Amino acid sequence: MSARLTGLIAAPFTPMREDGAVWLEQIEVQAAALAASGVSGGFVCGSTGESLSLTVPERKQVTERWVASAPDGLAVIAHVGHNCLAESQALAAHAQEAGAAAIGAMPPCFFKPATLDALVDWCAAVAAAAPDLPFYYYHIPSMTGVDIFVAELLEAAADRIPTLAGVKFTYENLLDFSRCVQLGGGRFNMLFGRDEILLAGLALGADGAVGSTYNFSAPLYLRIIEAFEAGDIAAARAAQARAGEIIVALLKYGGMPAFKAVMAMIGVDCGPVRPPLRPLTPERSRSLRTDLERLGFFDDCNRRPGP
Question: In the annotation, is 168 catalytic?
């Protein structure tokens, strides 16, 4: 099993051309920008990567290009979750063949596992398709509707999934997160997935964090981590509050479409979102830029703003 994942791990956007095709060549630009910003990895083809709006061949192509493009020190974790178990297994096997550092999977979100045992069985089947890679359960009940106690999942799966490494925990149940951290004397690699409350995750023992806004605001979040580790809680709170204001502004413009608009603003264009999502109109994009300038966002982002 490889070393624990730590630090900031961005959840990269899947770059799209205006005609909706995946823009594979732009991944090299994304990877270089992330490495320069100080993040330690990329969790590709997840929610931020619009994975469930991509075809399986597209997801394989994106994973391959990320592995080929990632500079030394930038770990690539491939999300392989799918509503069809066979497709999820195929994605897992491909991620191992492509050279990913690890895999993660959210559970099926249409026909959902009815019991904890059913969920463990499903995870075990996916993980077994990539026996050489660490497996991370991706907990995001706001999107999947699978709302379980993850600590119970880890306890049930610990001896049934040899490659079970940890969890990408994207939820606000901090009690459950804390229990996961404490299990087995800290056995599991816990990655916190809520950018807006990163400080809470750090306080409870997160090893690292996976998030959308680390694509463009990594320096701000690195200040949160540095201040927390230095014991300067006031500075950590201030940086977290600043991040929160930026997130509120982005959510006002629809979240994902706004995130991708910001990437173009900072010179790492990732194109539009894929239907059923809709990109911002030029007017809305200009309004978002004005709001972000008012917040001083471009002083904290990974790159200087473009025209």
Answer: yes
